[in-house]
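for the recovery benchmark. tokens below, seq after
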């Protein structure tokens, strides 16, 4: 049995039994909400977007323009700040470190989280509930709280000033969110599909690879996106672990760059906007994937 067949079987089993009234109600045009709701939503959107726009536009200005008119538009528009940052090997070195750390952390979080979630969702064993509760409790302890003992552990492992010293803790602290999101997805897979796969001679590992991963792909994509963005924006852990500038990630690079060029505000704004641009683009492209994955997790 292929994943496509299982997916079509699952949808056909749920579709015809759906009440016609519900389908009609779903196709009916939705009513607009109150104007106050939209006003509050636009207000929050403006509060979130305004600083980003200011930073991006500020990179096209000169220091004199920022001093004379802090809230004004560039006149004329200057691209030298962005060009100088893009020509510097410092920026691209920190960019490569951020990409390496984010990709490695994302792969580790998704692979390990998917395997752990599969065991919790599909197997019955002692202390199963305690294990799930342990991952749920992990959501209540952010990395900042454990940063001092975490630094001691990383130091004992000899990973200080090493990108692995950032990757491994990020994987560990990313697993609770991954497990909480993926377990409902895996529980929602009908047992009949697993039984049919077993009759066809598919092993448990084959069922995991050929059925579980494709059917839980929305959740996998969601946790992957969240892990990548969280790793890209992480500042506290690299601040404690990384010492040499050659190993800096972009968040640390922004801080070091702003300290070195504190009098060149326009150049600092250009560096900052380029540092946050990849995460913004990544999030904008996969925004619907995140919402769809979280919705599926809640339904499961």
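predicted aa per position
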């Amino acid at each position: 049995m292929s994943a496509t067949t299982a997916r079509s079987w699952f949808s056909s089993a749920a579709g015809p039994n759906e009440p016609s009234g519900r389908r009609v109600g779903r196709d009916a045009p939705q009513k607009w909400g109150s104007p106050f709701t939209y006003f509050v939503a636009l207000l929050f959107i403006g509060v979130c977007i305004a600083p980003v726009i200011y930073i991006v536009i500020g990179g096209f200005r000169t220091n004199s323009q920022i001093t004379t008119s802090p809230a004004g538009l560039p006149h004329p528009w200057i691209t030298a700040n962005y060009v100088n940052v893009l020509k510097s090997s410092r920026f691209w070195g920190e960019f490569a470190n951020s990409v390496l750390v984010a990709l490695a952390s994302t792969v580790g979080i998704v692979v390990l989280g998917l395997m752990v979630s599969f065991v919790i969702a599909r197997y019955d064993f002692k202390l199963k509930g305690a294990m799930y509760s342990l991952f749920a409790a992990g959501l209540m302890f952010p990395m900042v709280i454990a940063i001092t003992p975490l630094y001691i552990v990383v130091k004992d492992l000899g990973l200080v000033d090493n990108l692995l010293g950032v990757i491994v803790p990020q994987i560990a602290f990313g697993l609770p969110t991954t497990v909480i999101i993926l377990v409902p997805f895996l529980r929602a897979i009908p047992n009949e599909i697993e039984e049919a796969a077993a009759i066809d001679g598919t092993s448990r590992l084959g069922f995991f690879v050929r059925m579980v991963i494709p059917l839980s792909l929305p959740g996998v994509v969601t946790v992957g996106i969240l892990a990548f963005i969280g790793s890209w924006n992480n500042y506290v852990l690299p601040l404690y672990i990384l010492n040499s500038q050659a190993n800096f990630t972009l968040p640390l690079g922004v801080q070091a760059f702003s300290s070195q060029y504190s009098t060149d505000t326009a150049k600092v704004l250009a560096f900052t906007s380029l540092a946050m641009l990849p995460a913004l683009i990544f999030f904008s492209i996969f925004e619907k994937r995140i919402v769809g994955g979280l919705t599926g997790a809640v339904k499961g």
